[in-house]
Write a structure and sequence with these properties.
Length: 264
């Protein structure tokens, strides 16, 4: 079965009125893959701009005739006011020290009556099960250790923030994507083709982990990862391994006050 991106919820196209969007802005776009996805759901004459502050990540993407990728901060968007039919961010506000400043900029560049939207997770409400005792708890601990400065439970706070910046007609949908490893199969699940090696995850984030853990604690974390990997590898060989986890993903949208629905 094909992979399903867990960060692109079902029903997103209708929720965002993408069929009516001619000018799309994706704030915090990364490499621009989500920007291109949005444009692919919009009318043929639509154009899209993706913005990100990370130059290296932007270089992984590619601008085209209809998708333009730009280096810019979410708090200072170099786009004229009242320009876009739909402005969106995905997993961005949770990582900003002042999310209201970024959302305020998103409102500024939206047309009057245009849509402003955010997709933000609530990782603190993640639930799951694994045949390896302690595996999911370890992943949650690693997430907390490597997410300094991020609000892992930001999702449900979006509605209040949208009200704070003056958006109207605010709506929220909550989707809970399921990530599955092992032999289980679910039609709406994001399936991992190979089991995650926990040791590789620990070594992936040395900059985040080393300042927060002393050498003894980091060595203990690595030992715990190796022990869990050993149990999981044996279960994989015996075709006994399976895991599934799910977290709430909040989709929130609102309209900029002062006009008819954009593009209609």
């Amino acid at each position: 079965m094909p992979d399903i991106d867990p960060m692109i919820p079902p029903g997103l196209v209708d929720f965002l009125d993408l069929g009516f969007a001619r000018r799309i802005v994706d704030v915090g776009c990364g490499s621009g893959s989500f920007t291109s996805y949005l444009l692919g759901q919009a009318p043929p004459t639509a154009v899209a701009i993706g913005l990100d502050i990370n130059r290296a990540v932007l270089k992984e993407g590619r601008s085209s005739k209809d998708v333009r990728l730009m280096l810019a901060a979410a708090e200072q968007i170099p786009i004229l006011s009242d320009w876009s039919d739909m402005v969106i961010c995905r997993r961005l506000l949770m990582n900003l020290p002042k999310p209201s400043a970024a959302l305020g900029e998103m409102v500024r560049i939206a047309k009057r009556g245009g849509l402003v939207a955010a997709i933000e997770p609530d990782f603190l409400a993640e639930r799951g099960h694994s045949t390896v005792p302690g595996e999911l708890e370890f992943l949650q601990k690693l997430l907390l250790l490597t997410s300094k400065g991020s609000d892992l439970g930001f999702g449900p706070k979006c509605v209040a923030l949208f009200k704070e910046v003056g958006l109207s007609e605010i709506e929220a949908l909550v989707h809970s994507p399921v990530t599955v490893s092992g032999g289980d199969s679910f039609p709406t699940a994001h399936c991992e083709r190979s089991a995650r090696r926990l040791v590789e995850l620990v070594t992936k984030w040395p900059i985040e982990l080393e300042p927060r853990l002393g050498k003894a604690d980091l060595d203990a974390l690595m030992k715990e990862a190796r022990d869990l990997d050993r149990v999981r590898d044996q279960q994989v060989r015996d075709a006994e391994y399976a895991s599934a986890s799910s977290f709430p993903l909040w989709m929130v949208r609102g309209r900029k006050v002062g006009g008819m629905n954009a593009g209609r």
